[in-house]
Amino acid sequence: MAEDHLLSDHSNGVLTITLNRPDRLNAFTAAMTKDLNALLDDVAQDTAVRCVVITGAGRAFCAGQDLQDRTVTSDDDEPPNLFESLEERYNPIVRAITGMPKPVIAAVNGVAAGAGANLALACDLVYAARSAKFIQAFSKIGLIPDSGGTWTLPRLVGSARAMGLSLLAEPLSADEAVEWGMIWSAVDDADLVETVATSARTLAAGPTLGYAKLKELLGASFGRLLDAQLDAERDTQDLLGRSADYREGVRAFFDKRQPDFTGS
Ligand code: T3D
Questions:
Q1: How far is residue 26's CA from residue 43's CA, in Å, rounded to a whole number?
Q2: What sign does the CA torsion over 150, 151, 152, 154 have?
Q3: DSSP 8-class letter at 118
Q4: What is the pLDDT of residue 43?
Q5: Is the CB of 82 under 6 A from ligand 1?
Q6: pLDDT for 126-137, tens place per residue?
Q7: I want to staple 183 with a disulfide (CB 3.0 to 4.6 A). Which of 13, 126, 149, 199 is the partner?
Q8: How do residues 110-127 score in pLDDT, each as one tens digit?
Q9: Average pLDDT value over all residues in the chain
Q10: Which atom of ligand 1 is nearest to the CA of 143?
């Protein structure tokens, strides 16, 4: 990485990406989102990486767009090009995470606000430290939840809660987020790193091709009728039934041992 606003560490099939601007609560600059997109593209291709973890340095996960890059303080300032920002920076990140052919875990170590919150919610599993908070901060600055927020939130928590979170921009605690079905798990702050590491190691040793197909199926399910989804399940199972991991999984079952999945 040319700059240190992103850190990446690859160990045992797990690639951990750390958003690293702690003095700005890991808010995104243009350069940081550009590098994050490039890194996610690389990781998607890298078969040695079988699980991705995204977390933040310091006391925050991510405070969304760096508002210091949005100089609209004087009436003479040209408005920033937010079309371009979403099209070229934020939307590709969300597409890269959801389209990543392997599990992506968000380890939400502290406050997650704006695009930072919705980037976390785009991940496949969200673990949060108990002290973390999720804030749809957008309405405080006259915007709407982006980075998939208007799509993800109603699906995760229902329309009423999605609307409340978005209109009021109030913090939601990690425990409430679990209770609402918005995230997978809240753990004591001191346990977050180890809990996520254990989960990531398990997923990295799992049937990666099957996980990729699971992501595709669940992601597409809201846009399909049951009949079409049944067809998609049939076709996917047909494919997976020919995979090395299926063969290994069934053999391991009869051998009464843990399967040694290769991800193919
Ligand atoms: O613009 C586009 O491209 C469109 C896309 C938009 C996507 C978005 O994400 S829009 C939403 C942008 N984010 C926000 O509006 C959140 C702004 N931050 C906050 O509301 C609060 O900082 C938090 C609730 C996240 C945390 O509050 P708190 O009290 O724990 O910390 P703090 O004191 O507010 O922040 C600590 C420092 O980080 C502070 O700097 P200082 O005073 O110590 O020099 C603060 O200014 C800075 N900081 C926090 N968030 C941002 C930020 N600096 C720049 N941009 C930020 N988003």
A1: 21
A2: positive
A3: H
A4: 98
A5: yes
A6: 999 999 999 999
A7: 126
A8: 999 999 999 999 999 999
A9: 97
A10: 10
Write down the pLDDT at residue 74.
76
Ligand 1 centroid from CA 63, angstroms = 5
Strand order in the sheet with 133-135: 60-62, 111-113, 133-135, 172-173
Residue 253's identity, in one-letter code, is F
Counting from 1 in the atom list of ligand 1, the atom nearest the Cα of 118 is 9
> What amino acid is encoded at 263 in this protein?
G
Strand partners, 105: 53, 125
User: DSSP secondary structure string, 186-240?
Assistant: EE-GGGHHHHHHHHHHHHHTS-HHHHHHHHHHHHHHTTS-HHHHHHHHHHHHHHH
- Reported as type and span, the H/E element at residue 38 is helix 30-45
Among the listed residues 50, 39, 70, the one whose alpha carbon sits nearest the alpha carbon of residue 124: 50
The pLDDT tens digits of the residues spanning 194-207 come to 999 999 999 999 99
Regarding the beta carbon of 214 and ligand 1, being less than 6 Å apart is answered: no
Is 143's pLDDT higher than 80?
yes
Q: How far is CA 204 from CA 16, 48, 52, 147, 260, in A?
A: 12, 9, 9, 26, 11
> With b meaning 16 or more CB within 10 Å and e meaning fewer, what string describes 127-138?
bbbeebbbbbbb
Q: Which two tokens stand for residue 192?
A: 């977050």
pLDDT at 75 > cutoff 90: no
Distance CA 126, CA 104 (A): 9
Give the CA angle between residues 55, 62, 150 to the nearest 5°: 105
Whole-structure pTM value: 0.97
DSSP-assigned states of every residue in 2-23: -STTEEEEEETTEEEEEE--GG
Between CA 216 and CA 239 the distance in angstroms is 13
Q: Is the pLDDT of residue 19 over 90?
A: yes
217, containing H or E segment? helix 208-221
